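[Solved] Which block belongs to which protein?

Original post:
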Amino acid sequence: MDELVNRGAGVAAWKQIADAIEADIRDGHVPPGERLAPEPALAERFGVNRHTVRRAVAALAARGLVRVAHGRGTFVEAGPIPYTIGARTRFSEIVSRTGHEAGGEIVSSGITQADATTAERLRIPVGAPVLAARFRRFVDGLPFSHGRTALPLPRFSRFLDAFSESRTISAAFAACGVPEYRRAWTEVSARISTAADEPQLEIAPGRILFVVESVNVDPDGVPIQASSTLFPADRATLRLES
């Protein structure tokens, strides 16, 4: 049945619609991961135009209740996933332990020269060649993080080919002769998302992101990877273990 907005309530139509959809989510009528009804159906349900519906959905997305996947629809956000960062941090293992499916992709890659920060973290000369890559990681098909990573060359010249075959970082390192590695240090901060982050993570503008800077080392303590990873704050609960 149509739920026409109350034009004399003193509350904007888009706000009434947002409240109604939020109630649907809270009451379990639209569970986490489920797609909302499309804009035309919502417009008919509430007796408004699609622009008003779009504003309501944008407000819900800004609050982290839904995410808009362009070309696929609007989905209810799942709750945050516990993500433990310690001496042995393995994305696929961490996600699998929570009962979810992990995935990942290399968005872009290339050989470049180490800047001062990368050189310090990898303990190599400034200007030394490194394999630089931008990546995304997924949980149940939803973007969970994105960022950049740098690995020293020529030691990891086979890394990309190995990752393409295995789809896991650990297996790619093993193929390059590093079957075991550990986290040397992790630094966590936060910032507001930018226009470059939002399509990568399928988030609304202005969302809070965790910024995780890290360095991994081989069993001899030699740095093998320097990374900067961004997590939407409402998709991950970060736990740091010593």
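(Second protein starts here: sequence line, then its structure tokens.)
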Amino acid sequence: MTITFHGAARCVTGSKHLLKLDNGTQILLDCGMFQGMGGETDELNGHFGFNPAKVDYLILSHAHIDHCGLIPRMVAEGFKGTIFSTAPTMDLARILLNDSAGIQEQDTEFINDSREKKGLPPLKPLYTEDDVMEAMRLFKIVDYNEDFEIEPRVTLRFTDAGHIIGSAAVHLSILEKGKFTRLTFSGDVGRYEDLLLRSPQSFQQSDYIIIESTYGDSYHKDLEPLEGQLQEIIHQTCKLKGGKLIIPAFSVGRTQELLYALNSLELKGSLPDVPYYVDSPLSEKATQVLKEHPQVYNRDVKEVMAQDSDIFKFKGLKFIQSAGESRSLNDDPRPCVIISSSGMAEAGRVKHHIRNNIGNEKNTILMVGYCEPSSLGGELSRGKKVVSIFGDEYDVRAEVRVIRSMSAHGDCNDLLKFLSCQDPSLVKKVFLVHGEYDVQTKFMQRLNEVGFNEVRIPGQHQMQEL
């Protein structure tokens, strides 16, 4: 068999890896959208590098857009196979993909207004909500720790990856020419001391491992606790400067962590008394999905739930629904906290909030997670003084802060712990994906040090024999 890496290859987005078995079966691991790749983004999302109509199965590790975001486009281009996921992943994918379709249509309309004034032809969104509806009909639920035969001689097993609700590491057992090959795809690996979720599970010995490497050279543990950092930044921005705090945050995972931390501050009597807005209809839906699956919470969260029936609700919090309400926040001069998607500030309502507040030094833009270097969030995190938003340039006068301890991705130690259940001498090859190349080279050295001698860093569209 072969595997070809069509995304998240030496970059942290667009997860997409295609297995071709000797009998002709094609299995795609994830179908993610590229995000924050600058001028390359549209081109990368417009061409898969393979024929979707020839893919037999799609296995989805979790519902983040950089892992599931191109599924509707793939279906529109001829994919008719089965999509395997956990139940929470299917629930989240439905709302995330519909939201993605809506954002694309809205942003395309906004951009086309500008293009029309410049005499340029209009653009089309990658897909629509109708395309999403067609894609959701193909989903098939597989529970954690269940051996599921997707076709004769090919067995799938999910284990909890601890990254977001429903996230799974993918394990395939494939019988070819009388010999079993066991392959593991990590998806995204969570943290072993996550604020909300259970730790990643161990798994059986594998021959080949495809593992993410986002923070393969970083260590989260020595960083300042989240609650204290949030309290200080809110006080500094809203109370002392009288400004607005804008927080780009992914609707799934990061937003719920922020709400949980703010709720914890209220329980301790330390929450600054200002309005808090979650400006993302998707975030409210995602939060509800998380509430419906309390089994995913870790022990600490369950102890808090014993005294607080709603761990994501606190005084002053309001979820914003309509676009009109969202726009009104920009007209309101009063200090407040606005949490809005997307996390890389590349799309969605937060991009409009940044555009309207970036020029005022009283305001703060707070980045709370990894951003692709060429994304708007990445440029702000690096301290760029002039940024382009919707084709126009803006001076960065607002203060930009970064909290690096907030990540749903495991650090180097977490990734090594995830692999600690394996005998390195029995692993034929480890493939590093979902990471920047310089980070991957450092993580490869760490893997070599603990006994994984055959480590590869595949490039875009590169094929490997297994």
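Accepted answer:
You had them paired correctly. Confirming on the second one: The CA atoms of residues 300 and 453 lie 38 Å apart.
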